[in-house]
Each structure stands twice: as structure tokens, then as C-alpha cells.
Amino acid sequence: MSAASRAPLTLAGAVVAALLLSACTSGGTSGGGGNTNFVMGEDGIATVKQGERVAAPDLSGDTIDGKQLDVASYKGKVVVLNVWGSWCAPCRAEAPGFEKVYKDLKGQGVQFVGINTRDTSTKNAVAFEKQQGVTYPSLYDPTGKLMLRFKKGTLNPQAIPSTLVLDRDGKIAARSLAALSEDKLRTMLTPVLAEK
User: Fold this and answer.
1) Which of 37, 48, 64, 110 could form a Cys-Cys staple with 125, CB 3.0–4.6 A?
2) DSSP string over 42-95
3) Looking at the 3D structure of the chain, how many domains does it have?
4) What is the 3-state secondary structure (H, E, C) of 21-49?
């Protein structure tokens, strides 16, 4: 077999290997295995039963507008965490729907918090929120340190965008690793909001 005819086979092998590796990293564990206690729905939303959830890690720090924020201060509310970047096209697509749901539900004990990541300055992040009309706060996480605080085997954010729903006790109830429409976000949030 000539080198020219081996090249497509080598490329095909590399593509298959990359796909296999990426499939291994999107299943809800961050390098860990074992029983994760979550169920992946057909809609791509993973959920955990109320008694089997784990607490979200410490998610505190500076916001994109220079204020301090600690997600734990929202205990008692259902919290929607959305990981986003100003450079991310799917993040731009989902932002208007997130803002609409936030405005609809903030009076019902729901708080939204963004986690802006991989933006090299807050300037782009602030411009993104202004352009998209986002009014809820966003933590500034340029290097992804907050995302790395999630324990192995939990419903952790592994993609941008990712969305997590925390229950009123600050435990991770649901996760999506893809951009969400307004309807899918409401579908993800409604069961947790209904819990007592």
C-alpha cells in the first residue's frame, strides 16, 4: 500500500479515535466512574432523584461587573446555573430564552446565575450581556476554575454552554450539556420548582 493510499485510512482512524474520546468525556463523569445516580432523558437532560443528589461546590467570586457573588447565598431558592462565553454562538442563541424564563420565574423563588468562562476580559462578557439583555448576575471564570470544583461522578458542566439546576438545598438536580430552548429550559426547571 502506498503512502498516498494510507493517508485517508490514517485520517479516518484519527477521526474515529477523536469521536470515541469525546464520547467518553460527555457522559456525566469528570474522569470518574461508578454509580452516578443520574438518569439521562431522551431530551439530553440528566436528572437525579431528590434523595440522591450531591451538593454543588463552592461557587463564589467576582462577577463580570466587579461585584462579589456566592451561589450558596441563594439557598432556599431554585438556582439555574448557565455556563457561557461571549464567543459561543449557541450561548447567544439561548440567552434571550433564559432571560425570559428568569423574568417569568424570579418572583417564584428562582434565581439565575451565569458563569462566564474562557473570556479573556470582562469587557466582552459585559458587552454580551448588554447586547442579549441579560439582567441576572454572572460569575467571571476566565480559566474554568469554578467548573473544576465539581466532584468526579457528579452532574458537572463539561461543555459550553452547560446548564445546571440546583434544588432549594443547593444540590444538583439536573444538567444539560447543550444549548436549551426556552421550552426545554422550562421542562428542566419545572419538576425541581414543584418540589417541596
Assistant:
1) 64
2) TTSEEEE-GGG--B----EEEBTTS-EEEGGGGTTSEEEEEEE-TT-HHHHHHH
3) 1
4) HHHHCCCCCCCCCCCCCEEECCCCEEEEC
Tell me how far apart the alpha carbons of residues 1 and 15 are, in angstroms, rounded to a whole number. Answer: 21
> Using CA atoms, how far apart are residues 34 and 106, in angstroms rounded to an integer?
36
**Rounded CA separation 95/98 (Å):** 5
Task: Check pLDDT > 70 for residue 80.
Answer: yes
Cβ count near 8 (within 10 Å): 9
Predicted local distance difference test score (pLDDT) of residue 156: 81
Cis peptide before 161 (omega within 30 of 0): yes
Query: What pLDDT does residue 168 have?
Result: 97
- How far apart, in Å, are the Cα atoms of 17 and each of 10, 28, 125? 11, 20, 34
State the residue range of the domain holding 179.
3-194
Return the H-helix or E-strand segment holding 164: strand 162-166
**131 pLDDT above the threshold of 90:** yes
Question: Which of 24-28, 96-100, 136-140 shows the lowest per-residue confidence on average (mean pLDDT)?
Answer: 24-28
Q: Cα(122)–Cα(82) distance, rounded to whole angstroms?
A: 17
CATH of the domain at 81: 3.40.30.10
56, three cell numbers:
454543588
